[in-house]
Design brief:
heterodimer, A: alpha+beta, 13 helices, elongated, B: alpha+beta, five-stranded antiparallel beta sheet, four-stranded antiparallel beta sheet, 11 helices
């Protein structure tokens, strides 16, 4: 019997059962699949099938026996069917909108899962926007939809890394690093994924650098997920790991040198966008009609670049070293423009 | 340059299982649904759907008597289900399905985001909820773009087809202004959320985090054509494009970010890119953010704008 058919047969059998089904009965009913092999091999095969069903959202449970009931396996109907989410229509609309926009964008972790989820949701819980969401999901599943030029590979890496993050499997990368402008081969434990400026990055433990590193999906030249023992995690993610902390880290907060306290003056009018471009940890005070941003910097070069990109509305006041650097850069640029 | 993937047949088998777990209950709910429509809902061709239906005829449960099989049949190009064998509703979300939805909802934000994440958690099988909790904390799809109350009003305006009056910060002008917009939909691009709609007969996109205030008016409008909404083209009309030459390092940095530029030329030593929108101020900012590694090559007005900005900024540091 084909595996797909066997899994569905097993699910149907356990779903219909009113009482737990014993292992012996399962073997009797599926003699070709679980009956012929040695006892241990058959059990292992059954456990693999059980795990696959669980991965499809079908929870097969083992119930211990007691005085009234024999021990065995069961799919609890309450636990099987997608329940009514119990959300008001506006929350469902938000879910449809957020899900379909993420999918239409072309790059999102677990994109295929997202499409399946929208499909299930669209008819399990009706609300305005359901049919549009289902249409986007169907388009995605059929392999259609638009993708930005050059994004195909990054989109493929995103799906690979997503799976590796979920299953906690190591990845081997060939990576075009920016810092040293060198192509390296690395083994990395992917801990989490984040999006910044429309690009996806992942954070993890790099065995080459023996440190936590961030990897830009668009700089990956090739990627291989460890296929050995797919259901056994290769690593543990540290308890104190926070993806949000990495995602909100500004370029000047990467560890390149000991921390420096910097002050940047912003001339009015200061828009909230300009203020927030210094990140959530910057402190802003008013001084003589201008705003002064105070922040801690561990990569001075990146702060200089950011401040210069704001043109003459911004000026580095301190430390002197960064102010001098900004001036040197501007003098070089000025000479070149003349 | 290819990823190592699971063998195709394995992925296909899993995909087929997920698909049939959706299509059987869908066909139960919609008796007589045309083959074509059901195939469309599942994102497959009609032929593939018919193959799936054939496959399902062999699925059943012990003791495999005639009534123990699934029974789906096609009559006059319509699909009917005679026996569904308990597959009458779709299964719960897997942890990655729910986590993907949760990440998308959190990135959009809004008053309901926290409720939505809780409800998604409840709809994952109990044994997998710990995995969902872990996964949801390991994906960050961006911070919420607008204040809750604001997003709520925008949702309402889209649903009720009511014109929105916005106070909006236009980055190209560096100033706020009043706008009247027919809101069509929300869309995500380049890591930001946009309200997409029509203003004075032109399609426009407004970044949600730049909407300072908004109010619903009593003025209503006809729903836009579906094609327009699904296209959801972002950004206003492109202006005269500026070309920028980038050094090797700047090119590596810029090209790894999906930006509003087109790569004109790429070589080992760098790249030439064309900034497609937003005008000279944006070109100057872009070039300055790459220091000596970037040079605006055309048009002359953009070069002048850049030189003038460098001169004025340098003057500040010479004081």
């Amino acid at each position: 019997m084909q595996k797909a058919e066997r899994l569905l047969d097993l699910a149907a059998f356990l779903l219909r059962a009113a009482e737990p089904i014993s292992w012996r009965e399962i073997q009797e009913q599926f003699p070709e699949d679980y009956g012929g092999a040695s006892g241990e091999a058959a059990i292992r095969k059954f456990e693999r099938d059980k795990a696959e069903l669980l991965e499809l959202g079908i929870p097969v449970r083992y119930l211990s026996g007691d005085e009234d009931r024999a021990a065995g396996y069961l799919v609890d109907r309450e636990e099987f069917y997608l329940p009514d989410l119990g959300l008001p229509p506006e929350d469902l609309a938000l879910l449809y909108l957020a899900g379909s926009a993420a999918l239409a964008r072309g790059q999102f972790p677990y994109a295929r899962d997202l499409a399946h989820a929208l499909n299930k949701l669209s008819f399990a819980a009706r609300a305005p926007g359901a049919s549009e969401a289902a249409a986007v999901a169907a388009l995605h599943l059929s392999g259609g939809g638009e993708s930005q030029p050059g994004e195909g590979e990054a989109a493929a890496w995103l799906q690979e890394v997503s799976q590796a993050v979920a299953a906690k499997k190591r990845v081997r990368l060939v990576y075009a690093g920016l810092e040293r402008m060198r192509i390296t081969r690395r083994e990395v434990e992917p801990w989490g994924l984040y999006q910044r400026d429309g690009a996806w990055l992942f954070v993890g433990w790099c065995h080459l650098r023996k440190a936590v590193r961030t990897f830009h999906l668009r700089r990956i030249l090739s990627l291989e997920v460890n296929q050995a023992a797919p259901r056994t995690p290769d690593f543990k993610v540290p308890r104190d790991f926070s993806i949000a902390e990495h995602a909100t880290r500004e370029p000047w907060e990467y560890q390149r040198h000991p921390p420096l306290r910097a002050r940047v003056r912003l001339d009015p009018p200061v828009s909230p966008e300009l203020r927030s471009s210094f990140g959530p940890r910057a402190r802003v005070t008013e001084r003589r009609g201008a705003e002064v941003v105070e922040l801690e910097v561990t990569d001075g070069e990146r702060l200089v670049r950011h401040v210069l990109s704001l043109g003459d509305q911004a000026e580095i006041l301190a430390p002197r070293s960064l102010r001098a650097r900004a001036r040197r850069e501007l003098e070089a640029l000025w000479r070149r423009t003349r | 340059m290819s990823a190592t993937r699971a063998p195709a047949h394995k992925a296909d088998a899993r995909d087929r299982l997920r698909r049939v777990l959706f299509l059987v209950p869908y066909a139960v709910r919609h008796p007589g649904i045309p083959v074509r429509e059901l195939a469309g809902k599942c994102g497959v061709s009609e032929k593939q759907l018919l193959d799936d239906l054939d496959f399902l005829l062999g699925v059943g449960c012990p003791p495999f008597a005639p009534d123990d099989f699934l029974d789906l049949y096609v009559e006059r190009d319509r699909v009917y289900v005679a026996l569904h064998q308990s597959f009458s509703r779709p299964p719960r979300f897997t942890e990655s399905e729910a986590a993907a939805l949760a990440a998308a909802a959190q990135a959009l934000g809004g008053e309901g985001a926290a409720r939505v994440v809780r409800a998604l958690r409840e709809s994952v099988p109990r044994d997998r909820r710990a995995l969902f909790d872990e996964l949801v904390h390991r994906i960050y799809a961006g911070s919420a773009p607008a204040r809750d109350s604001l997003l709520g009003r925008i949702h309402r305006a889209i649903a009720e087809r009511r014109v929105l009056r916005l106070r909006y910060f236009a980055a190209t002008r560096g100033a706020e202004g009043e706008r009247a917009v027919r809101p069509w939909t929300l869309a995500q691009a380049l890591g930001h959320w946009y309200l997409y709609g029509e203003e004075a007969g032109r399609r426009k996109a407004f970044r949600l985090d730049r909407i300072r205030e908004c109010a619903l008016s009593e003025e209503r409008f006809e729903p836009p054509p579906e094609a327009e909404v699904s296209r959801a083209r972002l950004f206003s009309e492109p202006r005269a494009a500026a070309r920028v030459r980038l050094g090797r390092r700047a090119a590596a940095l810029a090209l790894s970010r999906p930006g509003r530029y087109r790569v004109v030329k790429r070589s080992a030593g760098g790249a030439v890119v064309e900034l497609q929108a937003e005008g000279e101020d944006w070109a100057t900012r872009f070039a300055l953010s790459h220091g000596a590694e970037a040079q605006i090559t055309s048009p002359p007005s953009a070069r002048r704008h850049y030189a003038e900005t460098v001169r004025r900024t340098l003057a500040r540091y010479r004081r």
